[in-house]
């Protein structure tokens, strides 16, 4: 049952990712076309979600910003997954001074409040999407490094790993044939659950003026621009916030479903 639920949620998530990629093509208006004559228009037939202070269609900008918000987060997670996993494997399997050095570096980064660290790095590098993504990479890689290391430490003393060593398997063969496949499931589960956090972090940086810059459409930036019109045009904040909320819920529910399915499989195997 839990496996079916996970498959359903993965299917919904896959469809959502496709829609965020092609959704901009179905936007009713040019998301960057300004028309001061239509500024701050309430939702109507022509503009289903209203317009912003520059007369741009809010629905079109939400569809345009979906790709920026979601795929920038996917890019960050892909990088931290790769870098963190590599560092964790080297530390856990190598041991000795390499393990101590890498873990001390990890602890130093984790000593700072994570989002404040991202804000500081983005502030030093300057506003922009690439710099915001880099700051989030620095913010999130430690989680994957520590998790990968702990999983490798558990696996490397397992009986089948010892048997592979006795049979003359090289370190590279042990890593890629036995250890890496053994840690992929929990690592990928963590990545799926982290995507929603990265989306919120990116939106937070853009809200503070350190992420995506105008005129590019991005949900956090749209919320930031709309806060000055909260009383006169609340839809400028309401609809981008709703899009952000529903996206985060989708990734969280999918991650929870995958975790339940993996736990059920583990109980069955046991």
Provide a brief overview of the structure.
The protein is mostly helical.
End-to-end Cα distance, whole Å, is 18 Å
CATH architecture: Orthogonal Bundle
Shape: elongated
Following the backbone from N to C, one meets helices and strands in this order, namely HHHHHHHHH
Number of strands: 0
Largest sheet: none
Helical content class: over 70%
Radius of gyration: 22 Å
User: CATH fold name, please?
Assistant: MetI-like fold
CATH class: Mainly Alpha
Structural class: mainly alpha
- Domain module tally: 1
* Count of DSSP H/I helices: 9
Arithmetic mean pLDDT? 90
CATH homologous superfamily caption? MetI-like
**DSSP strand content:** under 5%
Low-confidence stretches: none
What would you say this structure looks like, in words?
With 270 residues, the protein is mainly α. The chain has a single domain (2-269), classed as MetI-like fold (Orthogonal Bundle). Helices cover 74% and strands 0% of the residues. It contains nine helices and no strands. Helix 8 runs antiparallel to helix 9 (235-269). The radius of gyration is 22 Å and the shape is elongated. It starts with a helix and ends with a helix. The relative contact order is 0.15.
